[in-house]
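User: These chains co-purify. Model them together.
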Amino acid sequence: MTGSTNDQKVETENGDGTETRRDFLLISTVSVGAVGAAMAAWPFIDLMNPSADVLALASTEIDLSSIEEGQSITTIWRGKPVFIRKRTSAEIDAASDVKMVDLKDPEEDATRVQKPEWLVMIGICTHLGCIPLGQKAGQVKGEYNGWFCPCHGSHYDTAGRIRKGPAPKNLEIPPYKFIDNSLIRIG
Amino acid sequence: MTAPTWKNPLVKWVDTRLPIFTFMHHDLIDYPTPKNLNYMWNFGSLLGIILVIMIATGIFLSFNYTAHVDLAFDSVERIMRDVNHGWLIRYLHMNGASMFFLVVYIHIFRGLYYGSYKAPRELLWIIGVAILLVMMATAFVGYVLPWGQMSFWGATVITNLFSVIPFVGDKIVIWLWGGFAVDNPTLNRFFSLHYLLPFIIFGLVFIHIWALHTAKSNNPLGIDIKGDQDTIPFHPYYTIKDCFGFGVFLIIYLGITLFTPNLLGHPDNYIRANPLVTPAEIVPEWYFLPFYAILRAVPDNFIDIFGVLPVIIDAKTSGVILMFASILILCLLPWLDRSKVRSARFRPIYRQLFWIFLADCLVLGWVGAKPAEGTMLIIGRVATFWYFFHLLILVPFVSKWEKTRDLPESINSAVLSKRAEMQVPAE
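Assistant: Joint model of the two components:
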């Protein structure tokens, strides 16, 4: 390696500003290193995502036969409360009569249900994740006779649509299927 | 400022290989400190002591704590009832967090009053803001650990704030939770982070002090140190003053801890977490209340008023942005305030604005504790407006046009003339 400093000097300084072998090595080493670091980071980042056992609890079946008209039940799916309500015809009419221009997050009632009397939705306020009131008799149902979130005052109507308050979206509808007339599978 | 010569052979042996004793002598004993510091300068070292108290009590609590949704609440109750002196260590830790924030807020307002954020201390100030942010994160994840109702719902509300990030917000929230709701994976990682973050704070405090000892301490007059006659060594003059301040602090801290330990807590956190029932009112710990008020202040029809970016920004998003901005904006303060005069003592208009700003922050804290409706909502909005109006408009404007009072020639001359006044009573 005698005289290597001189050799390098000759090689790096071409004088005309063109790229040298050393620039190529530097850029490719840094790029490969960066890609490698990003790839090594991924397992750590992904480790924080839901694990297999958490994902395995992703579907649940519910028997609806015991629910009377005008009654609601709360069940749990993926650790979240799910509101299931057998709506009265007055509630269905109220929900379907609403004009789209009056809605903050416009959605027809018909698109939010599979059967008009059964409203199935995730019972988590779309504002900051509190559980709205209105499931039990005697609870505050808000100005639109649906659900009311006590945390920051969001009012939902009889289709679970946001009508007033800080929440930006309607209550979310989970994926579900009617297995028969009185049994549904959520997830 | 000469390097000390060590007599003890072992100390000498170590110090020639690793100059740790010279370093400590330089920064804890010799450190030239302005001779006119008042009691507002006690709170920095006090914060260092509180950090050590929090880490010590925290480590001992972790010996008996179980980070599992089925066991966490009971393990904390076991600490309170069965573990020897567990009640004491937990109450010290719990109230220590409140004291930590109380003292850090005093420390920050000291900096605001005396212009400690101005050149050449901008970076020192920004590191301080970073410490505040990590402190807040630590306190937040720590509050989740007892797994009471407020723990659970506080965690739910705050993690949901991240859902406002465009496009990937919902994915990020699930990633933070490690599931589809706040649950066992969330509790586990929060415990881990709660153990990690204090050591990050420790590291940040180290560079905070490094920057401080490079720029040297500010002082009530806000003028530069001009020579040796302006300073006294840190030890024994300020070590003894800090010790006295620490004694006063202990009276308050232990008074609350021993006589009214749950004064600053919320009773709902002694109810086991229930994912199906939201408490009637979710209230954060007192030290987050001003920021909570800002979060809730944005009107529903905010966009209708200003017509800015209506698609992306709704009331929820703008509330979240304002809340984070309220802290991050402090990083810009050294450049928003263009006045060359640091101390508010010589800035008659800024001084009044400072007190109004302090009152405004207290009002925000008060509003944050109340339900967001009616008059409270209006007051919250006005106070939020004033917070940003003060920092973004008034401070730059006043700093440019204000007529400041004459500064004393030096720290030394100011101290001596004050002493002369005291010795010769006015006729």
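The first helix of chain B runs from residue 9 to 17.
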